[in-house]
Specification:
The chain has a single domain, classed as Chorismate synthase, AroC fold, CATH 3.60.150. The chain has a 5-stranded antiparallel sheet with strand order 6-5-7-13-8. Strands 1-4 form a two-stranded antiparallel ribbon. Strands 2-3 form a two-stranded antiparallel ribbon. By secondary structure, it is an alpha+beta fold.
């Protein structure tokens, strides 16, 4: 009996869809979900919520010749070894970033359910290559204060323009760049999570690493906290409007694997898009000889902008699962 706003789901999925901007792959896909079961008159009916998303703009011929020439920094070689050469190379197969499309559908639904509990998930592009946006205010972060461009979400427009220049330069050189996404969960109640191996960080990290191209994650002050004294990194407790909070939020809303009631904040690293137009060295898996490889196809010079909704989606799925 839960009402789902289909228009909002489609709008969220469009943020991830290819062909939405000058900085994304030229491949265009509508990413239009067809609901197979689980919804009746816009409300959940108790059956599994199942959808289908058609791939309408594929070019499998772009992957011909890659079966025995693994692409640098792709899953090709590792998958070839694991599956005895039976891996599907076209489009990346089960390792394709295209699989984040159904994740975004599920995440969009979860976000609507979380909103009913006063919880929201917000993200922005924290950095592209060496250009860094303004960070979230970890202590004073409110949903009403966050209004960002859905397709290129940055806090500082000036930094955003610099990021776009970096991406354009990489694209002109047939190269690519990576970056960092900062994500925050607002309205998260205290006391959610478990100690040790089932902590909030553990579960979020495990699921976030399910997104292709993710190579790292940190919570709160993260690695920068190692540069501080304990007296600088510790978060003193206070009472604000009768609610127990912390003065600072270096712990990123998580203590001992359990939420503290402060915003849950983490940053995840996205590697540069592995498919680039520059000729690279590979090896022929049949002859065991080195060969030059030039990758053809339509690829993002920077996957970070389109990865933002994927990070939000996986986070929403994870949080809803934890609080149910």
């Amino acid at each position: 009996g839960l009402e789902i706003d289909a228009d909002r789901v489609r709008a969220f999925m469009s943020r991830r869809a290819p062909g939405q901007s000058f900085f994304a792959t030229l491949r265009k896909e509508a990413d239009a979900p067809t609901v197979l079961s689980g919804l009746v008159d816009g409300k959940t009916c108790g059956a599994p919520l199942a959808i289908k998303i058609d791939n309408t703009n594929t070019k499998s011929e772009d992957y011909e010749g890659l079966k025995l020439l693994p692409r640098p920094s792709h899953s090709d070689y590792a998958a070839y070894v694991k599956f005895g050469g039976n891996n599907d190379i076209a489009g990346g197969g089960q390792f394709s970033g295209r699989l984040t499309a159904p994740l975004c559908f599920a995440g969009a639904v979860c976000m609507q359910l979380l909103e009913q509990k006063g919880i929201s998930v917000k993200s922005h592009i924290y950095s592209v290559k060496d250009v860094t946006d303004e960070p979230f205010d970890l202590e004073n972060l409110y949903d009403d204060d966050i209004s960002l461009d859905p397709y290129f979400p940055v806090i500082s427009r000036y930094k955003g323009e610099q990021m776009k220049t970096v991406i354009s330069t990489a694209m002109e050189n047939s190269d690519s760049v990576g970056g960092v996404i900062e994500c925050a969960v607002l309205g998260m109640p205290a006391g959610i999570g478990e100690p040790m191996f089932d902590g909030i960080e553990n579960v979020i990290s495990k699921n976030i690493f399910g997104i292709p191209a993710i190579k790292g994650i940190e919570f709160g002050s993260g690695f920068s906290g190692t540069l501080k004294y304990g007296s600088e990194n510790n978060d003193a407790f206070c009472v604000n409007d009768g609610k127990i909070q912390t003065v600072t939020n270096n712990h990123g809303g998580i203590l001992g694997g359990i939420t503290s009631g402060m915003p849950v904040v983490f940053r995840c690293a996205i590697k540069p898009t592995a498919s680039i137009g520059i000729t690279q060295q590979s090896i022929n898996l049949q002859t065991k000889k080195e060969e030059d490889l030039t990758i053809k196809g339509r690829h993002d010079p920077c996957i970070v902008p389109r990865a933002v909704p994927a990070v939000e989606a996986v986070t929403a799925i994870t949080i809803l699962d934890l609080i149910l």
